[in-house]
Amino acid sequence: MSIKTLGVVTLAVTLMAPAVWLEARQSAAACGELRAAIDTEMVAGDLPAAITQYQAIVQKHGAGDRATAATALLRMADCYRKLGDGQARATYERVVREFGDIDGAAGSARAQLAALNASAASTTTPALALRRIYDGPGLDWCNGLSSDVRYLSHPDWDTGNIAVTDLRTGKPRAITKSGSLSPVTAQVGEFGECSIFSPDDRQLAFFWSTRRGSELRLAGVDGSGLVHVMSAGDSYLQPLDWSRDGRFVLVLISPKETEQLAIVSVSDGAVRVVKEVGDHSGRMAAAFSPDGRFVAYSVSASPDSKKADLFVVGADGAGERALVQHPADDYVLGWAPDGGRVFFSSDRTGSYGVWSVEIANGQTGRGPTLVKPDLGSITPIRFVNGTLYYHLSSQLSDIQIASIDPATGRFQSAAPAKPNFSGSNAKPAWSPDGASLAYISFRGTAGYPAAPEAVSILNLASGVERRIRPAIEELEPFGGGPVWSPDGRSLLVIGRQQTPQHGVHRVDVETGATSPVVSVGKGTLLHALWSRDGRSVFYTLGGGCMADVPCSTRILRRDLATGADLELAALPNPAGIPRIALSPDGQWLAFTSRSAELKPVAWVSIMPAAGGGSAAHLPRARNPGHRIGGMVLRWTVCVLHEAGRALAGHAGWKTGRESAGIAWPRRRRVLIQPRRTPRRLHARRIEIRALGAGEPGRRGQTALTP
């Protein structure tokens, strides 16, 4: 299930500063303990740990060094207030009640209680408010929002155009006209994404991809005045923010193995790089200060770390300073309207919340303050007059085991596979003996896992689940799942693109020992499987080519003893990214490919797995849209071959023995992985009448039935 929500949190512009009262009578020991607790609160930013330290000080020194105890209790109340914990009021009251003779601490506590009482009695809008404003179509990983919160800009992935949706009516309209995507070949042709509104809401700045490379473009929100601003060649380009005067756009340019924050002039396309960093793993975000003099940005400390820190740099690239450096993941959300604070998201308390840090003339002020806890890993869209509009995506994925009737193609029953954690498992595969499942497992949501992905193995008889953490940086999110070796002792997994470990790896199911099988220096590898004797690995390389650019997607077989590759097929652009499956006897390899005319047509072909023969198309099948419970299911050819019949399954489900886009099963039970639970489970049956076991080159006829 994928839940995408556009939310809003209204942030107060002023926060009351906590007071520190260190009386002259404090003992040296108590002073040291208090100083350590203050460091935990202000430097480390760990408020719960600081509260524990302050409590210990009050208990230890409450009878002797009352000044120190009063200071600790006051700071403990301040921590509760920052956390939004209702214990703040009771703790301030305790300071007044038990330490009324300590003038400084008691006076500060009375002031805080007066502020709390005034806030509670006020009938105006609270300083901090949270509400959902939209959860319909169009939400993407980088949207734009008009300042009147009426229009949402987003890519239309059916056409490749930039579109704007009226949030009042839910109706979209195209801004660009030259997008050339289709529902099937979504990686081919021109397309746009990552659009942002200008300060006056009259223009959109957006990324545009062409066969010549990436560009920054502008267009009026009515579709007029399309302007090419600059080209970035083969580098990815993402517009991040406009300057308040509308003269500049802050962009992120990603050449190979580096990242550049740059300011682009709207009038002439001139580019000024303000910060360049090496390759990194964490998210990089940035925003102009309201006066345009500074840029706040977040970047990971090293290529191996996903945890980002906050920095500020002048718009001219000078005077860089650290704003927040902490072991947690901290990333920029935006500036307060007066430029006096930078808001950021941080998981330093164990879950992502909104924090702020004071800043004046590029210099850091008072340390981080918690504004709103437990908000989740949000994507900022726009700040409007102290209000943060953001996108929150929660993608849930789980596994069920279903029975099918091969004669009718109907699903007969389905039940959860019962792994330990629901909503966090994907890409299942049967073990060779059918007794276990292997699948990708994570904590959190699919879009924002809270811990590194692992491979889990579930024993279906006992219900015991084991987790294996392969010794690779990250698993490939767009490829196939784990694949069992014929002897059941190993799994194949794929390391993520754009990492040094991109390729196929073998993982021992008992020890987790990991070794490379295929390393990819250049290209995209998304699918792999074993030969039936375990001596070879089939894999795909390439795919996702741009229109009119000569390239091919290759299907190869690697001999594990010699390391030699045998090319089985080279599919010309635009073949898409094929799914592959091996027949039960290991003699035939089936794979998918796309129509060369970019029509919504997918081919299923088979060829000798040993090579030396040409591929033969099975009858082609179109991709109809099927509406269930308000969602459209687009069907791709997903073949389950048994007794001359085949089932075509939904692309969002993982079906059959190989857990790939196509599979040859040996049993009537299949695995399905719905991202949303439809009211009914559907399949489409393809009867291949003219295909015999020894006749791979003969074309058959198809009969599609719902």
Structural overview:
It contains 5 helices and 49 strands. By secondary structure, it is mainly β. Strands 19, 20, 21, 22 and 23 form a 5-stranded antiparallel β-sheet that branches. Strands 40, 41, 42, 43 and 44 form a 5-stranded antiparallel β-sheet that branches. Helix 3 (66-82) packs antiparallel against helix 4, helix 3 packs parallel to helix 5 and helix 4 packs antiparallel against helix 5 (103-121). The longest helix has 19 residues, at 103-121. The radius of gyration is 29 Å and the shape is globular. The two termini are 24 Å apart.
Summarize the structure.
With 706 residues, this protein is mainly β. It has five helices and 49 strands.
Rg of Cα set:
29 Å
Counting helices, strands and paired strands, the structural category is mainly beta
In percent terms, what proportion of residues is strand? 35-45%
Looking at how many chains there are and whether they match, the oligomeric state comes to: single chain
Mean pLDDT value:
75
**Distance between the amino and carboxyl termini:** 24 Å
The major beta sheet can be summarized as:
5 strands, antiparallel
Q: Would you identify the regions where 5 or more consecutive residues have pLDDT less than 50? A: 10-26, 120-127, 445-451, 619-706
The helical percent reads: 10-25%
Distinct helical segment count? 5
Could you tell me the number of beta strands? 49
